[in-house]
Specification:
Blueprint (H helix, E strand, L loop, with lengths): L6 E4 L3 H10 L7 E4 L8 H18 L5
Parallel strand pairs: 1-2
Length: 65
């Protein structure tokens, strides 16, 4: 089966990520998207986004967070 892989990016780069994955023949690679921006955000906001990312990851791998 190979090594599980995926891509993590922010919403600002989601379109680019999808385009690049398609161009590279990896359109089926899982894409985990975090709300942009992260820089300059309060710790509470980053923690909330991290929890959302964890829930997305759990969904991508078929588990519940």
């Amino acid at each position: 089966m190979g090594t599980p892989a995926g891509l993590i990016g922010t919403t600002a780069f989601q379109g680019l990520a999808v385009s690049e994955l398609t161009a590279l023949g990896a359109a089926g690679l899982p894409l985990l998207v975090v709300q942009h921006p992260l820089g300059g955000e309060r710790p509470e906001s980053v923690a909330r986004r991290a929890q959302e990312a964890l829930e997305q990851l759990a969904s991508l791998i078929g588990r519940t967070a």
